[in-house]
Amino acid sequence: MAEVILEARKLAAESFSGDLRGISIDPFDRRLRSYLIMSMGSLSDERLRILFLDGGRHLLADEVLQSGTLAQLAIYPRTIFRRALELNAAGLILVHNHPSGDHRPSVEDIEATRKLEMIGRSLNVEIIDHIVVTSTHCHHVISNDTLAGTPIPSASFTLRSPGGPARIDHGDIALANARAAMRRRLLRQQLIGTPELFGDPAWEMLIDLFVHECERKRLSISALCVTSSIPMSSALRLAQRLCDAGITRRVPDPIDGRRTFIRLDPVIAHRMRAYFEAGAE
């Protein structure tokens, strides 16, 4: 009987997979969610599936790149991005399953996602979403989806100077220079290592916040801490010090009371814009 059920699920997954071909893929599309639950929700070990997409978010490849134990999955960025570059992919949707049945992302899931986002940004490959799958749920790590099947609208952030609105332009020089600064810092860590000697965690946090606000993306405190080159406990204390100094502000998540977002104080955001408009680091 178990074999019959597994075969039925396999056939259903193949049917849903066919529905994804030739369409622009939305991470919240019910066809995608059904396919992922059917194909991965009942697996006994963790697996990492990557959906490689072109610039129009059409599916280039659907591949399981890595597998792990019941409670742990090793993620190797080099493997993921080498394949993305081979396919000339513009974006990726990461998918992994939780055999435990708990659809909530772990701290390690969030940390891995943030690191992959940073690497992808340096290679111009967008991490569109990271979806955690169980037998009944799909949880969207990047999109902050806390209700299965319900997309949460992105918050719109505006940087305002004391005298009026600051410019927000996805192609502006300040944003380009801030992104370049992040890429160089990441490259320095990869080439030289020992971030505890060469890191500048507070400034790295502020750059990450500035880039996210320019891109109109929210950033939680835990996700921000991954950016720094220090342990999570130290990063959390540093994030609190930035808030206490009035450099950043905490913003409660109106949907999930357990989550707190963080953003730059408008005056600091204006000064950072002026800094990066003056040139790249």
Automatic annotation (TrEMBL):
Listed CDD domains: MPN_DUF2466 (cd08071)
Keyword Glycoprotein found: no
Cited Pfam families: RadC
Domain of life of the source: Bacteria
Gene Ontology molecular function terms on file: metal ion binding; metallopeptidase activity
Record field: transmembrane: none
GO biological process: proteolysis
Record keywords: Hydrolase, Metal-binding, Metalloprotease, Protease, Zinc
Gene3D superfamilies tied to this protein: Cytidine Deaminase, domain 2 (3.40.140.10), Winged helix-like DNA-binding domain superfamily/Winged helix DNA-binding domain (1.10.10.10)
Domain MPN: 23-148
Keyword Metal-binding on entry: yes
Descriptive protein name: DNA repair protein RadC
Species this protein is from: Sphingopyxis fribergensis
Organism phylogeny: Bacteria, Pseudomonadati, Pseudomonadota, Alphaproteobacteria, Sphingomonadales
